[in-house]
Amino acid sequence: MEAAPLYPIPATIAAVVRNGQVLLVRRAHPPDQGKWAFPGGKIHWGEDVRAAALRELEEETGVRARALAVFDAMDVRDLDDAGRLRRHYVLIAVACRWVSGEPRAGDDALQARWTPLADLDRHALATSLGVAGLARRAAALLDAA
After folding, report:
1. pLDDT of 24 higher than 60
2. Is 28's pLDDT higher than 70?
3. Could you tell me where the DSSP H helices lie in 11-121?
4. CA distances from 100 to 34, 53, 57, 61 (A)
5. Of 120, 102, 99, 108, which is closest to residue 40 (Cα–Cα)?
6. Are 90 and 101 in contact (CB under 8 A)?
7. Residue 19: how many CA atoms within 13 Å on its side-chain side?
8. Is the pLDDT of residue 1 over 60?
9. Rg of the chain, C-alpha, whole Å
């Protein structure tokens, strides 16, 4: 296993909402392996945040979108079984408008699907922390745009 960096890792997530449903992937790797979350990943050197969100979205789901707004950022800490910090990510959330494609699992995703926003409130899925709130905020942004 590679040594953990001693600085936060910038990453992005794509919040795509269409017809009252949010696009989620079931994560194949830590942190939150097996949980449902937004498609996303590390930002490449010199890459724009919005471009990174769209690239990760297409790699993980096959869906294409248009990035509208950066609307949040959060810390995600990946801890080992003893509670020691392995990785510290700073996730930058980008609201995206669906353009084309239907979800299929690719890259780092076990599954990909449209999920009704109401299911997030009912806790019908095991999701990463904050997914429901971010999905509602993205939906409001997309409705207003």
Report:
1. yes
2. yes
3. 49-61, 117-121
4. 26, 15, 12, 11
5. 108
6. no
7. 3
8. no
9. 14
For the purposes of burial, counting CB atoms within 10 Å of the CB of 14, is it exposed (0-12), middle (13-18) or buried (19 or more)? Answer: buried
Query: 54-88 b/e with 16+ CB inside 10 Å = b?
Result: bbbbbebbbbebebbbeebeeebebeeeeeeeebb
pLDDT in tens, 53-95: 999 999 999 999 999 999 999 998 888 899 999 899 999 999 9
Phi-psi category of residue 62: left, alpha or beta, with phi > 0 → left and psi -120 to 50 → alpha: left
100's tokens: 């084309």
Q: What percent of the chain lies above the pLDDT cut of 90?
A: 74
d(CA 38, CA 102): 15
Beta carbons of 130 and 35 less than 8 angstroms apart: no
Of 53, 66, 46, the C-alpha closest to 12 is 53
Phi and psi based region of residue 54 (left: phi greater than 0; alpha: psi -120 to 50; beta: remaining): alpha
Supply the CATH classification number for the domain 9-144. 3.90.79.10
